Amino acid sequence: MVATLQLNDVGVRYGRQEVLSGVTTPVMKGGEVTAVIGPNAAGKSSLFRRIAGLLAGPGEIAIGGVSSCGVCYMPQDTSVNTVLTVYESVLLARKQGGHHRVRDDDLESVDEVLADLRIESIAFRGLCELSGGQRQLVSLAQTLVREPQILLLDEPTSALDLHRQVEVLSLIRSLSRKRQMCVVLAVHDLNQVLRVADRVLVIDGGTMVRCGPAEAVITPDLLRDIYKVDGRIERCSRLCAQVIIDGPAAH
Amino acid sequence: MAHAASVAARPGRGTYRALVHRKKLLLLALGIVLVLSVIADLGLGPARYSMREVVLALAGSEEVSNQVRVVIWDIRMPVALMAVVVGAALSAAGAQMQTILNNPLASPFTLGISAAASFGASLALVFGVGLLPFAIEYVVSINALLMAMGAALFIHLMSQRRGVTVETIVLLGITLVFTFNALLALVQFLASEQALAAVVFWTMGSLTRATWPKLAITTAILAVALPLFFRRAWALTALRLGEDKAASFGVNVRRLRLETMLIVSVLAAVPVAFVGTIGFVGLVGPHIARMMIGEDQRFFLPASALAGAAMLSLTSVISKSLIPGSIIPIGIITALVGVPFLFSLIMTNRRRAW
Q1: Which chain B residues are Cβ-neighbours of A122 within 8 angstroms?
Q2: Residue B12 resides in a domain
Q3: Where in the sequence is the domain holding B258, given as residue range(s)?
Q4: Do B296 and A88 touch (CB under 8 A)?
Q5: B247/A142 touch (CB, cutoff 8 Å), yes or no
Q6: B262: closest CA of chain A, how far (Å)
Q7: Nearest CB partner across the interface for B12, out of A79, A82, A114
Q8: Partners of A10 in beta bridges
Q9: Is B107 domain-assigned?
Q10: Would you tell me which residues 74-103 of chain A have a C-beta closer than 8 angstroms to some C-beta of chain B?
Q11: A70 vs chain B: nearest CA distance in angstroms?
């Protein structure tokens, strides 16, 4: 059964203050990648935490075709203060809610995910000794090792260099196809969005302003209205387009 | 087939298994240190016995006199074993406090739980006020226990409030320490000379108050608490990755914290209620364990308990050895021994501990 996720008028409230409202999407299916974009403090992280069940709020989140532990969320903040090693941290992510004993298949899964993300060389280093980018990769490994059916990634590549960004987003896209995983991710780089996302959801000022196929949503109008820059979209290959920024929007 | 071969060739699994084996050996080493320390503890006192005599007496051999067997089994054994279970309980409680509050300074002593227990005990010692009036025999212990549990739950409830940070919790603990110390000073000011001496001795912490029933109660609580923690080992370890991360793994963080704090409050309060204030074991024991064995709770928890037990047992040996013929209250020695030991560990350990 294919995993599905649909948001219907979803919002978030902190006490009496409403920080997000009116997020409605079509059904997001396993095998699809949806990118959530928008300026800083637009409400993207609140939306992820709301879908993950860490925040309360109005609206309906319809999740279908997944087991009880099928939804996994990778928070934006990856800072840690622990002597746990990378390997231990990925293994403990795998062991949550499962058998107490560590079995061979648990260790095999950990080895595989570390190899997929090419971080085997830091497997036995302490988490607090890692750079920001390495921590981000480990956090992603902790999420992927749980083999989720719905994957929520809040800025998973913000601390990575360009090569790693391309590599990691390609891996996420291929895993979503291979495992029929429904992926929702926040990314700031619109070129990366155009490369990996099937659908784009735009959040601005605590509300959803656009939702649709990536190339239909990312337009010069969006650059001007949401990001206050002038720019254009150019097709750079048969497969994807590219955002060219000219400068701050003329008033 | 090729995939299976490539998986088997990966070094991660093998290295992990080797590290787990090393951790098990370290636990065994801690256990051996503890056993040797208990034997030394049993041999020390007004009459000194050799390690051989102690072992023979423990085995019930006829080679040692009946007097030696009586001294070791009936007089010294409850005290020596009380050092073990009190050390293990305080250290395990400190370890879990540090885990759920995400704070390296958390311990029964630094968060005011021991101070609350002292105040509760002083009420009984000075005014004869019992918080549970029907339990006259254990009035001092029960007062201490209830006050300590109250303080632990207060800390927990405050830590759940929005906007309360790790630093705030430590500050809150310090305010509790000062508040209960001030109240204790007030009670001491109002106390008669005889009652004052009793309060001062109680607050120093002494294992000589150990009896078989007290030992049995503390052991029973430890025997219930440790498996409860162990069952939650993976979830408790996940807390070290941060609250959001643990929650994203499906851990019910709020419930886990509440359950753990309830167990911790009993585990920390009972030893203090029976033997008085013994500081630093609950703080230092977990740090020694963390530096030796890491933070995987399946190993960290037993290592903390063993480190605390060994530390208090060794302290008991030292408290009997410093001034021949007299036993210095153990609460005085724990800090004097524990702090330099922790300091040397921190200075020689290249791995960041917190």
Answers
A1: none
A2: no
A3: 78-348
A4: yes
A5: no
A6: 22
A7: A114
A8: A23
A9: yes
A10: 74-75, 77, 79-85, 87-89, 91-93, 95-97, 100
A11: 10
Set of chain B residues whose Cβ sits within 8 Å of the Cβ of A139: 245
- The alpha carbon of residue B249 is apart from the nearest alpha carbon of chain A, in Å, by 6
Partners of A8 in the β-ladder: A60
Share of chain B above pLDDT 90, in %: 36
Q: Does A106 touch chain B (CB under 8 A)?
A: no
What pLDDT digit, counting tens, does each position of B15-46 carry? 999 999 999 999 999 999 999 999 999 998 88
Architecture of domain A1-70+148-218: 3-Layer(aba) Sandwich (3.40)
The contacts found for B100-104 with CB under 8 angstroms, 24 or more apart, are: B100/B236, B100/B239, B100/B256, B100/B257, B100/B260, B100/B261, B100/B264, B101/B155, B101/B159, B101/B166, B101/B169, B102/A81, B102/B166, B102/B239, B102/B240, B102/B242, B102/B243, B103/B166, B103/B169, B103/B170, B104/B287, B104/B353, B104/B354
Could you tell me the CATH number of the domain that includes residue B130?
A: 1.10.3470.10
| Domains: count for chain B | 1
In a domain, B40, yes or no: no
Instruction: Classify burial at B100, counting beta carbons within 10 Å of its beta carbon; exposed 0-12, middle 13-18, buried 19 or more.
Output: buried
Q: Where are the domains of chain A?
A: 1-70+148-218, 78-145
Which one of A111, A119, A122 makes the best mutation probe of the B interface by having the most chain B beta carbons within 10 Å?
A111
In a domain, B242, yes or no: yes
Residues facing residue A36 across a β-bridge: A186, A201
Per the CB < 8 Å rule, is A54 touching B247? yes
Residue-wise pLDDT tens digits, A193-237? 999 999 999 999 899 999 999 889 999 999 999 999 998 888 876
Distance between CA atoms of residues A6 and B320, nearest Å: 70
